[in-house]
Amino acid sequence: MNESPEAVDVASWDGDETLTTYHDEVWSAWLHGSVAAVHDAGRLLLLVPMILTPAAIALALRLYRVGSVTVLD
Q1: 48, 26, 72, 60 alpha-carbon torsion, rounded to 10°
Q2: 1-55, pLDDT tens digit by residue?
């Protein structure tokens, strides 16, 4: 495979006014076993609908690795 992996980061939607517009979509994805994501400055930003804890970050990254991602934009 010659493609370089896309940069991925995890963020909570509650700290950014722009991301809060995705409130319902982020929760819906999370409650249905996937992680919501948006493209942001050349990276994929995984959105977690809670305060970021090590467990929440690990789950978001795990969902990303298994392909359970809902891209919102």
Answers
A1: 30
A2: 334 457 999 988 766 666 667 888 999 999 999 999 999 888 999 999 988 999 9
Q: Which residues contact 69 (CB under 8 A, 6 or more apart)?
A: 34, 35, 36, 37, 44, 46, 63
Tell me, what DSSP letter sits at residue 72? -
- Nearest residue to 60 via CA among 32, 24, 36, 27: 36
Three-state SS sequence of 46-60: EEECCCCCHHHHHHH
Global model pTM greater than 0.90: no
